[in-house]
Design goal:
single chain, seven-stranded mixed sheet, five-stranded mixed sheet
């Protein structure tokens, strides 16, 4: 008998986010009930392929649960994409461990026999890049923003220590793979009758954000420039992120894939919650600084009205508050 569906806070926020973004409540509820870690009895293995959702012909997405890295998920905690052309395929982000990368590679093998020619990273955070090692030595080029090599290199020790601490033996074999193709502005990649348009952006979520647009299907992979349900995380510039969102939402497209959230969402409607949150962080931080309040009070006073609207709020909002205070302190 299937386990009963329990709509806990995390699943409720996920369903609400999906509904607000124009995706189905029922599908969201099913997905996050399955992701409930109380139902997981053993860590995943490389033989367990990631579950890919088909968005359009040749376009597939793994929609990750709203979780921190743990043995039960093996580090598969960000959304990942696969785009298949007539000659080759590209993967977009690879997860937080080589184990997740291997699970992604197995999933790709089940939807196409074409070789993976490109491994594209949307930015340097470990949940998006540490699965790269699974594709090393197989002829793929690793593609990222021109600033990603330095950003990743200076964080390597921290990222690897985190994998070993949280995954233990499941993290063995994980290593940082730096990109060998760098995007500075705009670049196109040909998969064989299918072109991907890559664009690097000024500092926003990070200083090395990259988006990927599949012209054939109108699918735009935004990486962590867009969070849906999962509280946004700031590791770049809040001013820059808000400015970039203005530019991105001015563009129309069939669908977008967030870095965290449902497999796809309607655009630009899906940006509303993130923009509201980021605007509030900005206004609350400015208010504290104007009142002469120290940085130490920011984690408990910034964007507190948003707590019940986001998963993992308490894990990341305090960091966002501190980062924003740093940025605006000398405004």
């Amino acid at each position: 008998m299937a386990p009963a569906f329990r709509l806990d806070r995390r699943a409720f926020i996920a369903c609400a986010a999906c509904a607000a973004a124009g995706t189905g409540f029922a599908a969201a509820g099913t997905r996050f009930a399955a992701a409930d870690t109380t139902q997981v009895t053993a860590p995943v293995t490389a033989r367990d392929p990631l579950k890919l959702e088909k968005l359009a012909d040749g376009v597939f997405v793994y929609a990750a649960p709203y979780e921190l890295m743990a043995p039960e998920n093996g580090g598969a905690i960000c959304n990942m994409g696969v785009v298949v052309g007539s000659e080759s395929a590209a993967v977009i982000d690879t997860g937080n461990s080589v184990l997740t990368g291997r699970r992604l590679k197995e999933a790709v093998r089940r939807v196409t026999d074409r070789p993976v020619r490109y491994v594209i990273n949307t930015h340097m955070h470990p949940d998006h890049v540490l699965g790269n090692a699974a594709f090393r030595g197989e002829g793929a080029s690793f593609v990222a923003h021109r600033k990603m090599p330095r950003a990743l290199a200076v964080r390597t020790d921290t990222y690897m220590a985190q994998v070993h601490r949280l995954l233990g033996p499941l993290g063995e074999g994980t290593e940082v793979v730096l990109p060998d193709v760098l995007v500075d502005g705009r670049m196109s990649l040909d998969l064989g009758g299918r072109e991907l348009i890559l664009e690097s952006w000024p500092t926003a979520h990070t200083d090395n954000d990259l988006t990927v647009f599949d012209e054939a299907s109108g699918t735009w992979f935004l990486g962590d420039l867009l969070f849906v349900g999962h509280v946004p995380t700031l590791d770049g510039s809040l001013k820059g992120w808000l400015a970039l969102m203005e530019a991105l939402t001015a563009r129309g497209t069939t669908r977008v894939v967030p870095g965290h959230g449902p497999a796809s969402v309607a655009w630009p409607m899906a940006a509303g919650d993130e923009r509201r949150y980021l605007d509030l962080v900005q206004s609350d931080v400015r208010r504290l600084i104007a009142a002469g309040q120290p940085m130490s009070v920011a984690p408990g006073r910034v964007a507190q009205s948003e707590r019940e609207k986001w998963v993992l709020f308490d894990e990341f909002n305090p960091r966002n508050a501190i980062a924003a205070y740093h940025e605006y302190e000398w405004e």
